[in-house]
Amino acid sequence: MTLLAFQGAVELGLIYALVALGLFVSYRILDIPDLTVDGSFTLGAAVSAVFTAAAHPWLGLALGAAAGFCAGMVSAFLQTKLKIQPILAGILCMTGLYSINLRVMGGRAMISLLRVDTIFTPFSQGPLGKLPVAAVAAVAVGVLLILFFRTQTGLCLRATGDNETMVRSSSINTDRMKFLGLGLANALVGGSGALIAQYQNSSDMNTGVGMVVIGMASLIIGEALFGRSSVPRSVFAVILGAILYRIIYAFVMARGLAASDLKLISALIVTLALSYPVVIQRYKLRKLMKEASKDA
To answer: Is 70 exceeded by the pLDDT of residue 74?
Structure first.
């Protein structure tokens, strides 16, 4: 793998870290499996591309995140007010967003941003390329998340995910916390999509397919290698996990596999990461049983 490919992998890892952080909020903090991610990522990319093409890249970035927030609020509404199961609510939102994304993009399957200025343009000719923008975005979001989860609202959000019944008995509106949490999670995902559209100078309808798996791979790799004993540790473990995932992916692609194999590789990485604790536990149990049989 060349140095340029390695740098590109780190840049993409930092941008996709926002997706992993969004899943961290919904999956780890709220304990809700939210599948809205695939649709809200594309929505953020579509909104960003439309406004960037109109010479408003920073506005496109902000509105892409805001659009993701709205998508998360819809998912929360289905779950809290209509009592639809989280997984089904996410599927419904993801399905509905396909048509919405197509309308946002003016009925086109792709929007090209070639020869259009983006937030990365001023840095493209520098020695570090687009890396500074991606690094600032990931670190800034990580720090803001840590600070947020130390506030009273953030603590209530964490408590809602830990024990919803107890929190409800403490006169905390758990439905409101779910609205906030899922909105925040999808705002991060939409912001990542907005950055990716400007990073890759294009946005297409299939850009968000499999984003849940990619985000989960980053999340699980980070937690497996760096732990999650506290919120600050978990947040930066997720960011490092996203970077490591993209490096692994770039390394595998350099071995000659096709780009279409990305989803399969992602699924295998998630499977290995999820099954690792079980395999280790079974190995230790079998070892103890062998030792016990020898003593007998």
So the answer is: yes
Asked if the model's pLDDT at residue 112 lies above 80, the reply is yes
Nearest partner of 128 among 8, 246, 249, 1, judged by Cα: 8
The amino acid present at 198, given as its one-letter code, is Q
Dist CA 214 CA 193 (whole Å): 13
For residue 205, pLDDT over 80 is answered with: yes
Tell me, yes or no, if the pTM score tops 0.85. Answer: yes
Angstrom distance (rounded) from CA 3 to CA 106: 38
DSSP 33-71: --TTHHHHHHHHHHHHHHHHHTT-HHHHHHHHHHHHHHH
d(CA 26, CA 122): 34
Coil, strand or helix: which one is 119?
A: coil
Nearest to 64 by CA among 130, 15, 7, 131: 15
